[in-house]
Amino acid sequence: MFRRLQSSLRLDSRNVNKLVGPQGLLSLRPGLCGRSTFIVCHNRTVCSSCSKMGHCSPRVLSIQSHVVSGYVGNKSATFPLQLLGFEVDAINSVQFSNSTRYGHWKGQVLAEQELVDLTEGLAHNGLDCAYTHLLTGYSRSKSFLTHIANIVCQLRQKNPGLTYLCDPVIGEMDRGIYVPEDLIDVYKDIIIPIANIITPNQFELGILSGKPVKSVDDAWEAIGILHTKGPGIVVVSSFELDSTGPLICLGSILIDGKTERAMITFPRLQGTYTGTGDLFSALFLAWMWQTKQNMQQSLENTVATIQAVLKRTEASKTGICSEASIFQHELKLIQSKSDIEEPQVEFRAVPITL
Ligand SMILES: Nc1ncnc2c1ncn2[C@@H]1O[C@H](COP(=O)(O)OP(=O)(O)O)[C@@H](O)[C@H]1O
Ligand code: PXP
Questions:
Q1: Is 93 in the pocket of ligand 1 (CB under 6 A)?
Q2: Mutational test site, ligand 2, from 138, 276, 280, 281, max ligand atoms within 8 Å of CB
Q3: pLDDT > 70 in the chain, percent
Q4: What do you get for the CA distance between the two ends of the chain, in Å?
């Protein structure tokens, strides 16, 4: 219905009162920024001033890395989010020539004051009033990460319904912690409590919950602990029982005081890839919006797209010189456009009752 509305109506103050969907009149409320009228339709809020320009989309502020060559951070997240209907406003927390996986890179790191300047600029022009989502990933500095909490407050003042997805990037099972250790307490004490959705991997789940996670039962227990800290949605992006077996994703959502859980198991592919965690959180955010918070479907679609991207990445390797080997692991994202738009689900998520 929402899509039909989008295509059939150009919303302005003259026709806004005529909005009647099959399920009745849609509600109207004044924009919090005072500049526009918002149309609330099936829990989605449409800014009438944006609609005049032909846009009717969720809008995400994505604060992540940028690389000139390759796909991590915002380079990994932006294209899929856009394909799945999101306006994406990107703040680049770093601008590097390439991902740090190459071992050598050059570029700039966005200072905390520069982050403040960018968000002040947005606020000055009322451009911060239309965000429905905030997405953050890899952060290397305590002050930068702490400032993200201020941004969450700023955006929630404008839109109390803002969904904040935090990927708490801390480390991995085989690599250990790869961010400054003082970030951990910032995640625990400041960021996790204000996030709606978090997407830790198995290692990060253990660190953040304070419990080592070796079995699936451990994982559900740790997820339960993280729910009590704040986030209503906890998704473990990758979990393994041993280093050669299949990979598992676990998702848990609190709905009306009850917890719904789902789990999906799929084969591990040979090879290591960069930017998959960033792709995961972007896809999951988009599918939770697209499916109106259907955990099973969102997990299935997210995993289906990533597996298709990884298989295409594998298939396109040529096996030439070693300098090119990391480059050859760069995600074949653009070539996977149709797998992003219409994922072919091979691995089903199963509901879990504890
Ligand atoms: N070797 C692999 N085989 C299959 N899928 C993988 C592999 N590596 C990553 N993925 C996919 O990427 C997703 C994110 O995993 P990962 O990169 O481990 O996340 P994170 O960066 O949060 O640790 C997983 O859910 C999985 O779908
Ligand atoms: C600059 C940079 N390099 C590399 C990576 C890749 O991280 P991973 O190895 O977890 O895919 C990231 C993650 O966002 C990044 O920001």
A1: no
A2: 138
A3: 82
A4: 36
Long-range Cβ pairs for the range 248-254 (8 Å, 24+): 248/216, 249/299, 249/302, 249/303, 249/349, 250/216, 250/219, 250/220, 250/223, 250/352, 251/295, 251/296, 251/298, 251/299, 251/349, 252/220, 252/223, 252/224, 252/227, 252/295, 253/293, 253/295, 254/227
| DSSP symbol at 87 | E
Hey, how many other C-beta atoms are within 10 angstroms of the C-beta on 345?
A: 15
In terms of C-beta density within 10 A (0-12 exposed, 13-18 middle, 19 or more buried), how is residue 301 classed? buried
What are the distances in angstroms from CA 353 to CA 102, 161, 217, 255, 260?
A: 43, 29, 12, 14, 8
Q: Is the CB of 100 under 6 A from ligand 2?
A: yes
Cα–Cα distance for residue pair 130/121, rounded to 1 Å: 14
Look at ligand 2, atom 2, and give the residue with the nearest C-alpha.
99
Dist CA 190 CA 148 (whole Å): 9
Residue with the smallest CA separation from ligand 1 atom 22 is 277
- What pLDDT score was predicted for residue 17? 37
* Angle in degrees, CA 115, 121, 124, rounded to 5: 140
What value of ipTM does the predicted structure carry? 0.96
| Catalytic machinery residues | 278
Interatomic CA distance for residues 133 and 131, integer angstroms: 6
pTM value is: 0.87
- 237: Cα within 13 Å, side-chain hemisphere: 29
pLDDT band at 317 (very low <50, low <70, confident <90, very high): confident
- 110-137 pLDDT, tens per residue? 999 999 999 999 999 999 998 999 999 9
